[in-house]
Design goal:
mainly alpha; 3 helices; 88% helix; rod-shaped
Length: 148
């Protein structure tokens, strides 16, 4: 949906509104010419009524398709957000584990300061993981609320 040749949502909304107005105007014209008795006018009214019904049906289909495509795009975006959050979580946890292992090795050599630094790095990584999860969950909740 992000292709450059795809009309914007505003353009689509305006087109839909314009088509609805044309349909309403044509319907009003049909009603205004009801008392016209000529055969030619009657034939035109029949054809116009048929075309209006077709246009209304196609417009409804278009609107439903647009909603379906929007919903699918949102689902895809949510999936990508979720995958990115999971990848960030895994990477952060791996980094924290490596830092802790390095600190333990350094602590075995009597370097308490290195152990404290590694613990601080692990704590920071865990906080980053929690923040990433919280952001992803908030984004998911917001999108799900929007889709309801």
């Amino acid at each position: 949906m992000s292709e450059s040749n795809t009309p914007s949502s505003t353009t689509k909304d305006k087109l839909i509104a314009d088509i609805k107005q044309v349909v309403a105007d044509a319907d009003a014209l049909l009603q205004a010419t009801t008392d016209q008795a000529s055969e030619k006018v009657a034939e035109l009214r029949i054809g116009l009524r048929k075309n209006l019904k077709t246009a209304q049906g196609r417009l409804a289909e278009f609107e439903a398709t647009a909603v379906d495509k929007t919903t699918e795009a949102i689902r895809e975006a949510l999936q990508k957000i979720s995958e990115a959050a999971n990848q960030a979580t895994v990477a952060t946890m791996e980094a924290a584990q490596k830092a802790e292992e390095a600190a333990k090795k350094a602590a075995g050599s009597g370097k308490d300061a290195a152990q404290h630094a590694a613990e601080a790095a692990r704590d920071a990584a865990q906080k980053a993981v929690a923040a990433t999860r919280e952001a992803a969950n908030k984004a998911l909740d917001a999108m799900q609320d929007w889709m309801r």
